[in-house]
Structure of LacI family DNA-binding transcriptional regulator:
Amino acid sequence: MTSIKDVARDVEMSTATVSRALRGLQGVSEETRGRVMESARRLGYVPSPSAAGLASGLTRTVAVIVPRVTQWFFAAIVQGAEEVLRERGYDLLLYNLAGDASARHRVFETNLLTKRVDAVLVLSLKPSPDELDRLLRLGRPVTIIGADMPGWATVRIDDHEAASTATQHLLDLGHRRIAYIGGATEGVLDFTAPSARLAGYRCTLERTGAPPAPELEADGAFTVAGGLRAARELLSGTDRPTAIFAASDEMAIGALRAAQELGLRVPEDVSVIGIDDHEMASYFDLTTVAQPVHEQGRVAATQVLAALTDDHWHPEQVILPTELVVRRTTAQLRT
Amino acid sequence: MTSIKDVARDVEMSTATVSRALRGLQGVSEETRGRVMESARRLGYVPSPSAAGLASGLTRTVAVIVPRVTQWFFAAIVQGAEEVLRERGYDLLLYNLAGDASARHRVFETNLLTKRVDAVLVLSLKPSPDELDRLLRLGRPVTIIGADMPGWATVRIDDHEAASTATQHLLDLGHRRIAYIGGATEGVLDFTAPSARLAGYRCTLERTGAPPAPELEADGAFTVAGGLRAARELLSGTDRPTAIFAASDEMAIGALRAAQELGLRVPEDVSVIGIDDHEMASYFDLTTVAQPVHEQGRVAATQVLAALTDDHWHPEQVILPTELVVRRTTAQLRT
DNA sequence: TTGAAAGCGCTAACAT
DNA sequence: ATGTTAGCGCTTTCAA
């Protein structure tokens, strides 16, 4: 393996100069840089990240902690983050918790990340106080995506508002019995969105004078299967809701399925709206409140990289806009 | 930052012994190991992967090169691989090409990976001869998933057979005008599955005496949108096919959509079958040839780790079984 | 603009 | 079972 030393010998210069030339630092004459680059190429020089990391304390690697890569939403954020990291020459270390508490424990509790990454991106997880403490002690930039964590750098949408938009859309269509399918407001993969969305739903309903009814609120675990189960329950009782607001498109898709199973037509018999604008949403004709998923990944990555370079940077809370996308699963209430 | 040296000083032993104790090597008395562990914990010792990597030449990191994480199929494989890597204490470096030729170039051409990872997993990509050459010169275990590359360690399904199963299912239902939606057999994100599946389709048709008709073969680019476009075309002509076999579930979902747009009922007017058993397949009632996606990731990861530890290991070609899953998008031909 | 030299934190070969 | 001793390949003062 040819090292910086071989190149130095080849161009008859010190390794220090070669290192500087290779990294594009200033204070190297153009002629020298040219000779170094040429020699490096000719000798097939490949830098050693381990050696650079050991010497500089920087790894040019960012950890991304994700609840489940198999969920389109998370994968899209990862993709966004990867793009900007790659552009800037950073590598992405993926930690997929996949609903596994021990995986979560391993990533947060052991100081696994300490000397391994320059920054951390946490997706849609609400770290516990203890976990936050460990993240803080990493002494590295951390950005949290999709959760509201005051004092931390975050990138998210206004979940309360998004839920409000969805609920209001149904109200505007004349619906009054509006069910809500959400998710546990705490647990292994908890984040702050579920509670904010639930609150947005309740608030908006209350403004109409209609008090939220507990029997209209169900847990769909933010999965298609969960949404299916929840909607089955909601729709099979007597006095069923005329509309369902699911806090995620996947749950909404489950709800569509439940309606179909029960012989209910959408939107004639029941309207359904979700949040996300999932890649499959348009194929289900799903009305939804779209959020810029991919973009959240890009912004978060940009943010940690800025923290890494800017001398005095301080945590920022970015809130990205959402937009109501009306398709064909919501319609005027039939009287 | 406390290092191995601090622990050595604390327990009054050499760094070599501490290193051995920490790594669980044999040749360390139980008493010593205990004291070292206790001291390490007490001092808040965190190992430095860079230092270990530099000294040992091993990074305990595996690169996973994926066409697009946002596609469920790839994400599921990544998840499978991540599980076994994590169990064994390896980290996963994600390289997402996302249809970007320059990203592909960057990963393969520059020797980015050389001193960075211990092994490489390549998903559903057919490396060019030049790329294969570079992979080979990494001198590291490489496993290719979803492509048929003789001489290399691979994990995949029998694509020819899977396509045959799907086609035969349609034939068994009485269909004769069976269209095929596949994907380019070369390009930036090419792999060997498209051609094998096309061949399986053609072969099976030929056995019935029906020569494959070029006008029944379309390109759906392995995406929902592509499948939609292709099926629109196929279904709007005169003498339209009575069944469509899409080489992936996503394209099949697009085909379902096209049928719906054109006012055709599935399966009464047209049968549709896919390959994969995508997580959304059951919600579309899609008949498909299921493949063990997650498992392919696990097997591939297990394979490279074995290559890393076994003294004399040689590349193996693992073929995982597929299974016809009949749902409600295929039915007997109506005469 | 360049060089000398120390050292980042660990592993591994060789001793004992 | 434990210690000694070289590095691994790079970055980073400090000097020139």
Remarks:
- The domain at 159-291 of chain A is CATH 3.40.50.2300 (Rossmann fold).
- Residues 293-309 of chain A form the longest helix (17 residues).
- DSSP finds twelve helices and twelve strands in chain A.
- The first strand of chain A starts at residue 61 and ends at 66.
